[in-house]
Amino acid sequence: MNTTLAEDTVKQQAIENVVRMSGVSKVFPNGNVAVDNVNIDIAEGEFISFVGPSGCGKSTIFKMISGLIDNTQGSIEILGSQMNPMQQKRTNVGFVFQDSTLLPWRSVLENVMLPLEFQKKSKKEKIEEAAQALELVGLKDYTKSLPRQLSGGMKMRVSIARALVAKPKLLLMDEPFGALDEITRQSLQSELLRIWESQKMTVLFITHNVFEAVYLSTRVAVMTPSPGKVASALDVRLPFPRNDEVRTTHEFSDIVAQVSRDLKF
Ligand SMILES: Nc1ncnc2c1ncn2[C@@H]1O[C@H](COP(=O)(O)OP(=O)(O)OP(=O)(O)O)[C@@H](O)[C@H]1O
Ligand SMILES: [Mg+2]
Description:
Protein name: ABC transporter ATP-binding protein
GO molecular function: ATP binding
CATH architecture of the domain at 18-100 and 168-263: 3-Layer(aba) Sandwich
Helix content: 25-40%
Number of helices: 9
Pfam families: ABC_tran (PF00005)
Low-confidence stretches: 1-5, 8-14
Shape: globular
Strand order of the largest sheet: 6-7-8-3-9-10
Distance between the termini: 43 Å
Organism: Gracilibacillus salinarum
Number of strands: 10
Keywords: ATP-binding, Nucleotide-binding, Translocase, Transport
CATH superfamily of the domain at 18-100 and 168-263: P-loop containing nucleotide triphosphate hydrolases
Structural class: alpha/beta
Bound molecules: adenosine-5'-triphosphate, magnesium ion
């Protein structure tokens, strides 16, 4: 079928892959095979969660995507280019870890300004951008606080603001809500979805919680036990914006059941 150039461009944009992993394996120097032959393409704008048994290599995959460690086999393309140069990648990829990893001696605002440190911007601009990121996570009144003066949920919000401040196209989140109580976890899930929809990023998310994975995601990737590979990637066809009521629907339970089945090898 003939299509115009404009139509082709739109199609290309819609299916552009932000991450392409093909035949990716990682063997650590001590011989540990962390992941073996991982294949997955992730399109722009997806919110994809990775679930899988402990030790199957989820964090290793994220570390390879962010450039913290190298893969030993296969290829990883990020945002249309091969992994290097590191510097180019770092500005486009944000990382949120399970613990909020804030510097205790720096204020909330100064923590969020960290990723801007080496950018050629005035201090005023950096402060404004950090303040905006904090507003996005609902913490604009806490700029001067120190991390120890915040609750666990608030620290995690600061950590998310710090990842967002450089406006990454790709946000990697490794069990960010694992240490939070259920109520805080659910309110942060809703906030994260709101941010994802407003910022038009691609989010890769690791969780052990199947309900969390289904609630948040456009797709859930299930990994096999160690050494992991992606066993299935299930579309979550629940409409956005999602609210708490979706958790009580049959459609939601059906998808949770399906992911749980895929997890039993
Ligand atoms: N630096 C390292 N050196 C050697 N082996 C490692 C290293 N880091 C991770 N591994 C091994 O790689 C495998 C995958 O680890 P990884 O941390 O990616 O798992 P995970 O899926 O994130 O687990 P969890 O759900 O418990 O966080 C494990 O067997 C682990 O022992
Ligand atoms: Mg991990």
